[in-house]
Write a structure and sequence with these properties.
With 255 residues, the protein is an alpha/beta fold. It has a domain at 1-76 and 194-255: P-loop containing nucleotide triphosphate hydrolases (Rossmann fold, 3-Layer(aba) Sandwich), CATH 3.40.50.300. 31% of the residues lie in helices and 29% in strands. The strands form 3 sheets. It has a 6-stranded mixed β-sheet with strand order 6-7-8-3-9-10, with helices on both faces. Helix 4 packs across helix 5 (114-126), helix 4 runs parallel beside helix 6 and helix 6 runs parallel beside helix 7. It is globular, with a radius of gyration of 18 Å. The structure holds adenosine-5'-triphosphate (ATP). It comes from Gordoniibacillus kamchatkensis. Keywords: ATP-binding, Nucleotide-binding, Transport.
Length: 255
């Protein structure tokens, strides 16, 4: 499904990723953890085909990057990130922004097909945002924006969903609602999920695997209970901590 083999990424004579080997199978839900600058977003951008490795290979959905039409492949990948949000037009009504997700367009310059409109409205209903459907995107709160991005990413019924810190800037209530929506809309079925966060407690039960990065190197990758150990987390974050599992969710206590 997603395979990074011996990936190195060098920019301006700096090694940003070093010998990354990561194999994500269909239906697995992975969380990528690591300190600021450890290379998480670079990996996500590589899986989206926005960066190419300096050496090694990236295969997504059975296609090797470098030999495939990325525009076509990207329709099977939903991507939520702040940088994508910034490219959208703040004056556009919410339902239109969601509808553009069906085509991987940033904006419609022609009449929007009824089918796309109906689907966008349905997705907005599923995340309880129908009341905002005609409001301009730029007027939404942080929490509403994140959920609109989630709905947009699901328009094309992607096989792979990539979320880069979808809960950043959300209060506790909004964060829990967002996590609930992520679980409801992408937790079932065979969708493969890759999720980046700085907050260990966001690893809700739907997540199956964790990869830990330290300065561009993977120090652990596998089933979450094997990777989320105090020893490995101390190595990744350089902070001694204890981990408590509550309702299949890890909570970190700094010692
Ligand atoms: N095009 C580039 N040229 C030079 N350095 C780059 C480039 N892209 C990324 N980097 C560097 O690579 C490192 C990893 O960046 P990346 O954004 O992947 O980290 P991250 O783990 O997502 O960090 P954060 O948690 O702070 O978002 C950073 O030190 C960044 O400055």
């Amino acid at each position: 499904m997603i395979k990074l083999s011996n990936v190195n990424f060098i920019r301006e004579s700096r090694t940003i990723l070093q010998n990354i080997n990561l194999h994500i199978r269909e239906g697995e839900h992975w969380v990528l953890l690591g300190r600021n600058g450890s290379g998480k977003t670079t990996i996500l951008e590589m899986v989206n085909g926005y960066h190419f490795p300096s050496s090694g290979s990236v295969d997504v959905l059975g296609h090797r990057y470098g030999t495939v039409d990325l525009r076509e492949l990207r329709r099977s990948i939903g991507y939520i990130s702040q940088s994508l949000f910034e490219k959208l037009s703040p004056a556009d009504p919410v339902w239109e922004v969601v509808a553009t997700g069906a085509y991987a367009f940033l904006r419609f310059y022609q009449t929007i097909p009824d089918e796309a409109r109906e689907k966008a409205l349905e997705l907005l209903g599923r995340i309880q945002l129908s009341h905002l459907q005609n409001q301009p995107l730029g007027t939404l709160s942080q929490g509403e924006r994140k959920k609109v991005m989630l709905a947009r990413s699901l328009m094309s019924e992607p096989k792979v969903l990539i979320l880069d810190e979808p809960c950043s800037g959300l209060d506790l209530y909004e964060r829990e609602r967002m996590l609930q929506s992520v679980q409801e809309l992408s937790g079932g079925g065979n969708m493969t999920v890759l999720y980046v966060t700085h907050h260990i407690e966001e690893i809700v039960p739907m997540f199956t695997h964790v990869a830990l990065l330290e300065q561009g190197e993977l120090i652990a990758a596998g089933p979450k209970r094997e990777v989320l150990t105090p020893e490995l987390l101390k190595r990744a974050y350089d902070v001694p901590l204890e981990l408590e599992w509550f309702r299949d969710r890890p909570w970190a206590k700094v010692l």
